[in-house]
Amino acid sequence: MGGALGGHRRAGTTIERARTGLGLGILTAVVALAAGCSSPAANHSATTTVRGKAPPRATTTTTTTTTVPPTTVPTVQGTSVQIHITGSTATVDFASSSVSGSLSPEPGSFSQGGIVYTFTVSGVQYSGSPSTTTATGGLITSVVVSSGSGGATIAVTLLSPQSHATYGLGHNEVGVSFS
Amino acid sequence: MARGSRFAIALTVTVALTGTLVTIAETAASAPAGAALPGTTMPLQEFVNNGLNGRTWNAYDQTTTSAGPDIAGRPSPIAYGPTVHVYARANNGDLMEFINDGFGGRPWNAYDLTEITGGPTIAADPDAAFFGAIVHVYAEASNGDLIEFVNDGAGGRLWNSYDLTQIAGGPALGGDATPLISGTTDQVFARSSSGDLVEYTNDGVGGHLWNAYDLTQLAASVQVAGDPNSVEIGSVDQVFAEATGGDLVEFTNGGAGSQVWTASDLTAATKGPTVTGRPSPVVASGVIDVFARASTGILTEFSANGSGGDLWNSYGLTTSSGPTVAGDPSAITVGSTIHVYAEATGGDLTEFYNAGSGQAFTTSDVSADAGGPGIGGSPGALLYGASSIHVYAGGPPPASPPTGVGLYGLSPGAQTSQAIEDNWPIIGDTGALGTQSAPYTGFNLGADLATGQAIEASGKRVTWLSFWTVSGPVSSNSDGSACYTSACYYSAAYGAGQYVATTIDSYASSGLGLKPDWVILDPEGFPDDHSGLDSGPGSSNANWSSFLTGWANGLASIDSGLHPAFYSDQYEYNTFDLASIQLPAFVAIAFPGPTNILENPSNNIAGFIAFGATCPAGSEEQTLANPPWAGSYNTLQFAGGQYCGP
């Protein structure tokens, strides 16, 4: 048992040093708890979670995107937003140049008997003409992105009435899924 | 010793070098060539100059011998009676102890001290020292707290862990802690998460056993950009570190326990080079010698030898006939000689040693001599007995995937396949978006698997970067409300990591035989302001550290073969001390005209993720191929769904 202190031994010689003019600071001891054998720090236990619902994986949806030609200025080019529809999920990618801060989808609302869901995304400046993508074969039939107060407005039209929407969020991307 | 006697033998020297003064060089903003990225896990290798098998050095894979885990970072060895104890961070973040105790008929065994003590996982390299006959191991926990692991037998348990940051009310750390123990005085030095050099010590001041001191303030000196290392000469403590800006600085006090600190700029005093990383000081024949990697990769000695009328002088130990080094050196003394070990550029463990104070250094390729592996990280050296040298390091590093400039954010399917066909060497995708409940990711899966399938179908070796947006703990309280503590951030990312690792491992059921080269946490989910980490109650260095460490550990708990990494923008990298995170970083920039605002980039930057690229992309590729953006794994993201070849 036991062993040498290795590199922490005291050496026999003290070297005198020329300093570079740095002054002495004020002792700033930070103290709090009485010392001793405290209990160990909290152990990080693993949190295993189970997803309530598998993500949509339908790949048979076909989509078509059209952008209304701008009629007034200023406009954002149609390529500044990309809309993807896959079954019951839609994602909207905003061009980085139009993202003015951290994206955040706001709570939306259903209308027309649950057929249309509309919500606003803040943190993006979208001042161009509406961009529309349509799809067939899945729950979502069209997505329209347009300018709105405080960001972009997204209107999603559904094949059948729904009552619950969930969001996904990434760097320049917002997603919505229905169940 | 369990593996038989190890005896002293004269060391082989191959190259004679002369000391030369070297000049200051610009600091690179990415990992040095030849160095594995931080967080890369590898087997624990032991190199011993035991003279067996007809060669001076031999190498042993002690992860395999012990049936223990792979390690990340620099191991810390100590001689404990007749045995050697090696402390290292395991691939799941636990503190491991490897011992050649022969227990159970196995020469080496591995013990999980995090599990044994019920303590935290660690986020940086540990460092061990003796306090009397007791072993003290210090490390930064995942939330930045300084943790002491001690085999004190308290409470009927051999090993216990103590949170010194909580006990002393001190600052969170931003890197490796290093102890300096003299008699009953225990001092632990580290860089705080704010960049100050700090000391924790058991001085009992104010009725508290442990107290914390800010040495940057006490010395009215500079902040530090790297991990410190210390030595004592006489009764004076000497602490060395890379200052912000790269100069090597020395902090020294008025004697053991003194809190009168002054600082000196050794780079300026010697007109020597700027340095990177953790220096390694020793005292040989009463003279302090400090070894550090210069920004150029040259192993440099700063010596208080008084030569030429100057107290401090600096010498480059690497010449045209010797290797540059890629990581931090580890120096020991054997009698009056100094032996310094480092990972050479190219990956071999290399020894620099001199025949005595003031003598020229020579080099020896230890990996080659041992017929053993290269290493992928900084070594830890130990003198055992009079002349037996043991050097520990992680190695060999995994083969590096293709480097260069690739693409991110392609449409899955045909566009990705076209990019691979066009020989873009790197493809990045979005695995999923962040969600508002656990596992805080998993929205819109599919692109990641599709990317892997496209790569596999091509038959090409393409670097695969898999980005996953992970939200903060926006519903982690029992009532479904947000919880912005470090523990909640850790838990949220841990669960996300488990979920993502499970998802990736399920790709095999779709016939995919590949996995991503890096699995990258993108903290741009809920709530607003980047998973709540950029402003508001979740915005802190500790939460960033906890979030990223939880991610790494969650991945490892399911699949230790996955390689965790993280994404940030430059503001976040600067503001939240992300340079100290021991994981590869992918840092966002934007075209046109990306602006470099990185303040103290470390070697954890694996690449830059550039938005707003346009076709043709030649000029933007060139921009990313040159400093300051010359990362190993850069990508362009074309605006508006454009695509073009390289």
Write up what this structure looks like.
The complex is a heterodimer of chains A (179) and B (646). Chain A contains no helices and eleven strands. Chain A is mostly beta strands and 179 residues long. In chain A, strands 1, 4, 5, 6, 7, 8 and 9 form a seven-stranded antiparallel β-sheet that branches. A four-stranded antiparallel β-sheet of chain A has the order 2-3-11-10, with no helix packed on it. With 646 residues, chain B is α+β, with helices and mostly antiparallel strands. Chain B has 13 helices and 38 strands. The longest helix of chain B has 20 residues. The chains are: A mainly beta (179), B alpha+beta (646).
Beta-strand portion of chain B reads 25-35%
Q: Count of helical segments of chain B?
A: 13
Let me know the number of strands of chain B.
Answer: 38
- Chain-averaged pLDDT of chain B: 91
Q: Rg of chain A, please? A: 29 Å
Number of domains of chain B: 2
Radius of gyration of chain B, in Å, reads 24 Å
How much of the sequence lies in strands of chain A comes to: 35-45%
- Straight-line N-to-C gap of chain A: 65 Å
The CATH topology of the largest domain in chain B turns out to be Neuraminidase
The greatest interface here is:
A-B, 78 and 125 residues
The succession of helices and strands of chain A, N to C, reads: EEEEEEEEEEE
The neighbouring-strand order within the major sheet of chain B is: 31-32-33-34-35-36-37-38
Shape of chain B: globular
> How many individual β-strands of chain A?
11
How do you describe this structure in short?
The complex is a heterodimer of chains A (179) and B (646). With 179 residues, chain A is mainly beta.
Keywords for this structure?
heterodimer; A: 179 residues; mainly beta; Immunoglobulin-like; 7-stranded antiparallel sheet; 4-stranded antiparallel sheet; 11 strands; globular; disordered N terminus; B: 646 residues; alpha+beta; Neuraminidase; TIM Barrel; 2 domains; 8-stranded parallel β-barrel; 13 helices
